[in-house]
Amino acid sequence: MNDIFIHPQAIVESDRIGAGTRIWAFAHVMKGAVIGSNCNIGNGVFVEGGARIGSNVTIKNQCLIWEGVTIEDNAFIGPNVVFTNDARPRSPRLDLVRERYATKGWVVPTLIREGASIGAGVSLVCGITVGEYAMVGTGAVVARNVPPYALVYGVPARIMATVCRCGLTLQFQRAAATCEGCGNRYQRDTDTVKWLGPKIS
Amino acid sequence: MNDIFIHPQAIVESDRIGAGTRIWAFAHVMKGAVIGSNCNIGNGVFVEGGARIGSNVTIKNQCLIWEGVTIEDNAFIGPNVVFTNDARPRSPRLDLVRERYATKGWVVPTLIREGASIGAGVSLVCGITVGEYAMVGTGAVVARNVPPYALVYGVPARIMATVCRCGLTLQFQRAAATCEGCGNRYQRDTDTVKWLGPKIS
Amino acid sequence: MNDIFIHPQAIVESDRIGAGTRIWAFAHVMKGAVIGSNCNIGNGVFVEGGARIGSNVTIKNQCLIWEGVTIEDNAFIGPNVVFTNDARPRSPRLDLVRERYATKGWVVPTLIREGASIGAGVSLVCGITVGEYAMVGTGAVVARNVPPYALVYGVPARIMATVCRCGLTLQFQRAAATCEGCGNRYQRDTDTVKWLGPKIS
Fold first, then answer.
1. Distances (CA, A) of B5 to A30, A60, B8, B38, C62
2. Residue B178 pLDDT exceeds 70
3. Around A13, how many Cα atoms within 13 Å sit in the side-chain half-sphere?
4. Quick check: B1 pLDDT over 70?
5. What pLDDT sits at residue B51?
6. Which of C44, C62, C166 sits opposite B90 (nearest CB)?
7. Which of B26, B168, B184 has the CB atom closest to A88's CB atom?
8. Cα separation, B53 vs B74, whole angstroms
9. 3-state DSSP call for residue B96?
10. In the predicted model, is pLDDT for residue C1 greater than 60?
11. Relative to the CA of A12, which of A129, A197, B114, B181 has its CA 20 to 30 Å away?
């Protein structure tokens, strides 16, 4: 692997890491984890085998990313974000559940779509999807799907606003919005926000 | 100590660790910590001197376990769970509180009973007990005692359902329930759920 | 640097650390971070360049302290506390926001005043100030300013009581309170609590 920076105090056991990716101190990327190119994997991050991370993804310090988690390109995962992959966890050495943990049938997937941002200290219940360019606020607990372009926060996280790909809040007039910052254009149909395209110049 | 796996990048200063226990990278077990047999102590976990952990316990990555915390056999502590042991913390070098911190009188205990599960990203206020086989949901803040077999979540954590030893939600008919998954049987008396025994075959 | 304790498994790249400060295992203090004297920087703490920490400060395990964060003397930062410094985070490699991240104009400051305590597992939205000797409870999400001497908790954190410099809850009679523990005296004017001085002996 060339063009990859691995801090001398990181542990990297995967050989499926894209060019230009940087992995910082005390991070641990296990065998079987897949990470794309030009990612930034922060200090103390843990990526388990079976996790899949796209390209141009920023993962801030101490995030915990398990088997069953998929993070698409250009996403931002803030510091101390914790994913989950077991809906009803018990100690696997408890006799009663030994059979359940004998296969990987218990793993529940989670999907973070293209360009989404997850704020600091967020916990995500497994089995949910965070839509493209959605934004989850600091300290939220995400317990259900987050639609594309939604800003959510709180416990449980609820929709509070709609945000542009650049991160600014959109002001809709009837069903249309143009970002005051970057000029990207959107349309809202019932519960769905659709990107129409970049600034018209 | 034989039959104990200690990752080369872990720091283990305690000699009171049971056979079959595995301690992973960047974990730190301090002198005076007690850990039973067949435990799994995850990447980045910190166990302070004076903490007591039973056998067959799973402690996922980055949990922080202090003096005053006791975790019984077969418990599951999810990733990024943080315990506490000081009800009114101040910097101990502040003149006004120097006397308070001169002894260990300030340490408030916390108890996690047999088979309980604590979800990812949970914070626990000190002085509470989580009852046997109770389950605390992702991202909850536990501020009071959790009864045995209760499923709690939210901030502060509230009782939402009753769960079986195997983790499934129980459906009570009058005061009796049989788990649809594993057949264990329970009885409810006022506020208490009591285990009656395993499946009758 | 003399009189500074640095654990052999810590990484310290800053040379601006005061006498008597101790930095524990797996902590990482980056170049450009400023830390005063007699601080205790816990296991796994991360301090970014540009962060400023006063003297006699306790920072418990795994806290994440970024550029833009200032922590004054005698403060207590509990375990797993996460700060933030970006109000609308996106992956900086996303074309649309590359210009925004080209300078440090996006950094939003946060200030923890003299003697304040931040509880375990707290997340702080950037741009806020926690007033002197205020106390933030376990698991709170701080989304607005916290007045001096206020006890706040919940999501979002709300004022629940007023606390003394020593940490005990104050009982006001009309606008005046004397701490039953240490004798410090306070006066309340509208929304402000003012310290009048120590015990009269």
1. 17, 29, 9, 10, 24
2. yes
3. 12
4. no
5. 98
6. C166
7. B168
8. 10
9. helix
10. no
11. A129
Neighbours of A31 (CB within 10 A): 12
Which pair of structure tokens corresponds to residue A133? 């360019």
The b/e string for B47-66 (b: 16+ C-beta within 10 A; e otherwise) is bbebbbbbbbbbbbbbbbbb
Query: pLDDT (tens digit, 9 = 90+) per residue, A121-155?
Result: 999 999 999 999 999 999 999 999 999 999 999 99
Average pLDDT across chain B, whole number: 97
CB within 8 A of A192, min separation 6: which ones?
A147, A148
**With an 8 Å Cβ cutoff, is B74 touching chain A?**
yes
CA distances from B92 to B3, B95, B105, C4, C59 (A): 39, 8, 13, 18, 11
Q: Which of A138, A141, A153 to mutate to test the interface with B (most CBs of B within 10 A)?
A: A141
B123 contact A CB<8A:
no
C83 contact residues in A (CB cutoff 8 A): 120
Query: For A56, which of C28, C83, C93 is closest by C-beta distance?
Result: C93
C36 touches C18 (CB < 8 A):
yes
Our CA angle for B133, B136, B142, nearest 5°, is 120
Q: Is A107 helix (H, G, I), strand (E, B) or coil?
A: coil
How far is the C-alpha of B86 from the C-alpha of C120, rounded, in Å?
Answer: 10
CA-nearest of A121, A193, A114 to A154 is A121
Res. B74 pLDDT band, cuts 50 70 90: very high
pLDDT(C164) > 60:
yes
A160 touches chain B (CB under 8 A): no
CA distances from C140 to A79, B115, C17, C62, C180 (A): 16, 27, 30, 17, 27
For chain B, how big is the Rg over CA atoms in Å? 18
Are C199 and C184 contacting, i.e. CB atoms less than 8 angstroms apart? yes
Q: How far, in Å, CA of A128 to CA of A143, rounded?
A: 7
CB spacing of A75 vs C89 below 8 angstroms: no
- Is A155 part of the contact surface with chain C (CB cutoff 8 Å)? yes
Residue count of chain C: 201
Distance of residue C107 Cα from the nearest chain A Cα, in angstroms: 15
Q: How far is A156 from chain C (nearest CA, A)?
A: 10
Instruction: Tell if the pTM clears 0.90, that is, is over it.
Output: yes
Listing DSSP states for C84-137 in one string gives ---SS---TTSGGGTTGGGSSTT---EEE-TT-EE-TT-EE-TT-EEPTT-EE-
Confirm or reject contact between A88 and chain B (CB < 8 A).
Answer: yes
Q: What is the pLDDT of residues B137-176, one digit of tens each?
A: 999 999 999 999 999 999 999 999 999 999 999 999 999 9
Q: Which residues of B touch C135 (CB under 8 A)?
A: 88-89
- Note whether A149 and A181 are within 8 A (CB): no
C192: β partners: C189
Shortest Cα distance, chain A CAs vs residue C1, angstroms: 23
* Token pair 């649809």 in the structure block, residue: B180
Q: Is C80 on the interface with A (CB under 8 A)?
A: yes
- Sign of the C-alpha dihedral, residues C166, C169, C173, C174? positive
Mean pLDDT of A103-117: 97
